Fold this sequence. Notes:
Layout: E1 6-8, E2 14-16, E3 19-24, H1 28-39, E4 42-48, E5 59-62, H2 64-72, H3 76-81, E6 88-92, E7 98-103, H4 104-107, E8 115-118, H5 119-129, E9 134-137, E10 141-146, E11 151-155, E12 160-163, E13 165-168, H6 175-181, E14 188-201, E15 209-215, E16 218-223, E17 230-238, H7 250-255, H8 263-272, E18 277-284, E19 290-291, E20 294-296, H9 299-302, H10 311-327, H11 333-352, H12 354-362, H13 367-380, H14 386-401
Parallel strand pairs: 3-4, 3-13, 4-9, 6-15, 13-20
Antiparallel strand pairs: 1-2, 5-8, 6-7, 10-11, 11-12, 14-17, 14-18, 15-16, 16-17, 19-20
Helix pairs in contact: 1-5, 1-10, 2-10, 10-11
Amino acid sequence: MEHLSCTNVSHTRTVVTMTDVLISGGGVAGSALAWWLRRHGFRPTVVERAPAPRDGGYKVDVRGSALTVLDRMGLAGPVRAHDTGMRLARFLDPRGRQLATMDAALFGGRSDGDVEIMRGDLTRILRTAAGDVEHRFDDSVTTLRADADGVDVTFARGGHHRFDLVIGADGLHSTVRRLAFGPAAAHLRPLGHHIAICTVPAALGEERIELLHPAPGRTVGVYRTAGAPDARALFLFRSPAGEPDPDDAAVLGRAFAGAGWRVPELLAAAVDASDLYLDAMSQVRMASWSTGRVGLVGDAAYAASPASGQGTSLGLVGAYVLADALAGAGGRPAAGFAAYERRMRPFVAANQALAERNLKGMVLGSAGQIRFQTTMLRLLTHLPGRERMISRVAEPIRRASTAIALPDAA
């Protein structure tokens, strides 16, 4: 096993060569990190709990500085080619009657060339671009034993290996974070809402249109991208009080009991869905994203929650900044991790702050608030100064998405 070594290539940069790095998690952040580490001369290995590449998932936004990262990877074109092409968001009452419509880009807070893409498409593009990076599917980390020179890792499917660095890119409920930093409860900050996402039959959605049914304390959405063989459903609701297990799928039925429109059909489809994701919407808040030779990136370190609309962009930018910092640290992981945190902390804070603000408009508290919101949406196209008003709505997201000075590409 070769450990950290460097070859000087300029007066200001070093490139780390033949350094073994384990990345736990093959999602957006992990795949992007593998690409950048390989570019800098590291030797990454990705371990992924799923038995095969995950090509499903919900649609996600890529904005601001994350677009710059994709451009520097040469992947902006392929990502834009997979834009969802969504056209409209339609708000519906319990009988399915239209309350208001909204341009899809405005509904998603997108501007300045932002892209909306299915998570599975983005991950596949990143994974393919990473080339011959080793992937260990259907496996996970079970123990970490770190010392001054490396980290001994034991895997669930047996065997162990020694790596120079271990990076947790394994999401909100990160195993690496738990093993290296302690119980999850110490780092998770619930936002008081739950989210459920799953695949449902195509007939329940409309092509390139997001159908939304708001009700007090809960919202349901369903959409189908152009040519897709199925649709995706989204359930948002205030976290139930006193539930013995709020992540039990049965809580979904209780939360939406008595709901109108096509919610009963969507609930029935969700029960049968093989990919149902149900969890509390939470953020990760940590005093440090590294300890010794173990570090975190993406949701594992600083999940902003789906309500922020910035989780994917944080993962892409974080992977770029972390790889650059480690490559420039002259073989000193602590210095690399510290540089990564200094640059990323303000960016993370700005984007995490979006979540609670956005949630207020995603799940409304009363029928009166719903009437006011949909009335304003109907009037928006007729009001003077419409473009200025739209710009004000999108400005906080645009500002947060560019709140970082990216290091120059090596």
